[in-house]
Request: fold
Amino acid sequence: MNAHDPSRSTPAAGATATSGFDPRRFKAMERAGFNRIAARYAEGAHLRAGLAAALLDAAALAPGLRVLDLASGPGLLARDAGLRVAPGGVVLATDIAEGMLAEGARRCGEHADAPCFAAADAEHLCLADASMDRVLAGLALFIFPHPARALAEMRRVLVPGGRIALSVWGPRETVPLIHRAQDTIARLLPPPKVARPSVFRYGEAGVLEQALETAGFVDIELRPCEFSCHFEHAEAYWQAFLDLAGGAAEALGRLPQAMQDALQAAVADELAGHCCDDGRGGYLLPARTLIATARRPKA
Reply:
């Protein structure tokens, strides 16, 4: 699950960022950020367990299949995929953040159905054509500076008739789980000098469907998936955001401590409308996602 980009400025959906955006620098920041939060990211997996299960269901996994998990992080999705393709299947978990992969390998241990871990850039995969039966990308497509390249790579490595299954955040207003933290950042910090890709750029179903069609996929199906996360207090919400935020976590971690403290304190104002009224107290933050499946044509 990725929640980068605290900025308010976003390029057109599906496009690369505006003038001045450096994809290599962006990837370096994301890599550093996810390496920074690797352990805590994995520890927060329970917050999005329902989404992960829904994505795996949509992928229609079965024993013996070969599965590629892109932007796998600590391999949480890949680990569960491994259970579904056993016996005889194999799962390759890839990410640009080697610290994330190391965390995943540590957690998986020596289990026979554990995924293989390999550092890789989703836009430039070192895999043979038609070598995978399934490709997964959980909350990842919007991260890639050139998502069309990543989609082309997914299609290339799939066997004819192979399936992709991916999830993306819904429209911004439907994901308070992310945008409440972003709104806090926007209130206290100046806007960024260079616009970055928005995590919500595939939130509209039509935009995502068009991207998949343009990439040459067929049998495209989209379905919403909603979930909510409970936090005992505002500080817990803020920490959870940082534990998901990749490049944003890296950038915020470089701020003076006084500003980091001010951001954490200010987020409570943004959460006022999300007080939990079921007796637990704290805050309940909803999120809407889209799950998409599609196939590489058989011919």
